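the three lines:
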Amino acid sequence: MLRLLSLVLLGFALLAGPMVAQDIYPVVPKPAFGKPHPEGNLFMRVNHMDLLIHDRDLTMRNGDREISYSLAECLTCHAVEGPDAMPVSVESDQHFCRVCHDYAAVKIDCFQCHNSKPDAASLARLKPDEADAADIAAYLKKVEE
Amino acid sequence: MKLPALKIPKKPSEMSRRDFLQSGAAATIVLAPGVTLMAYGAKADAAPADAAKRYGLLIDVNKCSKDCTACVSACSKEHGWQDTGHPETDAQWIRKIDLVDKANGHEVSLPVMCQHCESPPCVDVCPTGASFKRVDGIVLVDKHTCIGCRYCMMACPYKARSFVHEPLTDQKSYSPRGKGTVESCTLCVHRVDKGGTPACVEACDATGNGAMLFGDLNDPESEIAKQVATYQSTALRADLGLNPGVRYQNL
Amino acid sequence: MERTIYREIAATRGVWQLAILLAAFIAAAGLAVLFIEHHGHIVTGMNNQIVWGLPHVFAIFLIVAASGALNVASIASVFGKTPYKPLARLSALLALALLAGGLAVLVLDLGRPDRLIVAMTKYNFKSIFAWNIYLYTGFFGVVGVYLFVQMARGMPPLAVKVVGTVAFLWRLALTTGTGSIFGWLVARTAYDAAIMAPLFIAMSFALGLAVFILVATGVCKLTGRAFGEKLLNRMGRLLGIFAAVVLYFTAVQHLSNMYVAEHAGIERFILADGGIYTQLFWIGQVLIGGVIPLIMIFHPTGGVKPASTIVASVLILLGGLAQLYVIVIGGQAYPLEIFPGYEVSSSFFDGGISSYAPSYLEFALGLGGVALALMITGVGLKILRILPLSLADANVDL
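prediction for all of em together
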């Protein structure tokens, strides 16, 4: 009797986790522009911290400011607009980083020093326009030859 | 009920070059060691730190007027530090110092900031190596590694460093600063790396005084190197043998 | 001489009351740390002029006393003085406890204490701070082994002597490192001197023995175990010698500085017109921490009384705190001499004496460190066989 009861409780415990997870699994906000990362979302989820740490040393120690996965670029494409159509800061739980980090219960250290909102210059620079799109298309055509 | 799928993450080497280029995520593509393709409007003379250079400032004290604080205001606006009403704990990356000669009463005024020494005591004493000197002579604090022990503040002979005593918000994206870490003049490294000049120097030029000059001390053709070679200039606390990159004329 | 029997202390009401009191102090320090971490250091009295304040005074006091507290065990193991051998286990335990308390205060006052892992993994070996991290953690290891070989059955006496010698040398290196934190600073006229390291060594001898005397006699009183008067007297005379050595090094430091024109300003500040710092120096450090204890200990009739040694120990500790306050904070209050020969003024407080008013938060943190050290000592005494059943003179072969 006791054995049956403990088996039932064990089974319930094993199933309960994913059942609850299905409901509270984070809904990651889609960025307003830009294509998905070529490496894939799962690669980014697993490795974004390593990319950030590697690139921050390139910028800090070597002065290389033209790297691809800088924090500023992440924040620009992944900015989430709040009710006033301005990007939200990390104080709001709608912030892109907060959505997953709250779920995973991992403290974010970046935004004590870094601004969690992209600045206007980055937003203007990274939104591709027609001239850029034409340039990219022309370059890709050349590369494929 | 569906368990979240666990896929092996695809390594960058497994995707085709077309995928990568089409992503729009690549701002630079390395074609060969040292050769980089720049895209999206990068400037031609933007380059990472170069060991052949030694950046420095030359400040002509005669041209610096007592009431002018343009350099201080410009730095404060550029980096986001300001007077919050707590002068003892507010950060000051650069300040104007007024001097009166005790012997003859002669008055002089000059800006003092991190002197970007060649042998910085702050770099020597930092336990984690957060305080470091770049190969081009600019002394910086790597705030990712700074533990806020303030030993560098004890060690600096020029009182150049400030500690951030309160939580900060709305930092400039090119100049991150945070509570619990130490900071000081960066020689506007975010501008310099893109071929620009520090904000204080620009502001001083804009006032018409032109007391501050920025450049590469190692480049014999630069204005600063010519001035230093021609006219007498001195370093603060030269007796310590730190060889600062900031030099003062007519002091 | 009777064989020394070590026994755990009994958890009497007095012991429990003391434990609860210490726990309250530790809790207060914990709350203070949370408050400071949340609001930033603006809530403390420290600022951009006085960057190291009361917590650092307490931390350095505890760390210096820690290395000195091991001295009693070293006298027993390294120098072979039999009367001190029953005290060696307590000495080792107290050294560990004081160091733990001091480091706790130091680490919790960091601007980013959450980055302790960074401090333990990234090292700049040109910094004496980085070396100190190894010296401090190594001290825990070495003294831990030392305590083990003292307590383990069947250990050859040579093992105790060898490990004891290693511990003695390690603690000298540790205190040299602590003194060099200040001695290797070229920027400030109060510090840039080779004598800082020997001065701290001398202070460790005096403060460590004073703490040991107070803790040993206090615990024996609390648990009803005897502490012989002759033993106490002997330790008291040794303490007097150490206090005299501290006075000597202080005198050499200031006399040398006064001779140099460059240091005339800081000397005038500390010795004459520094306000609180001058008072702490003359009355706190020299009078209360040096002259009066010396008179009490070496007085022909009064010196033999146990009360003389106990009170002298308290005074020496107060004098040590005053000395560290003058060194750490007085040294920062005096302005940097960037422009010799000029009167200097600026918006960043150049050229003037800086003021510092410690906040209650810093006091709470410092006292919490002391309480932590005493708590660790108490727990060690309770669960391990550290304290001899009797330290009466009859048992000790004087």
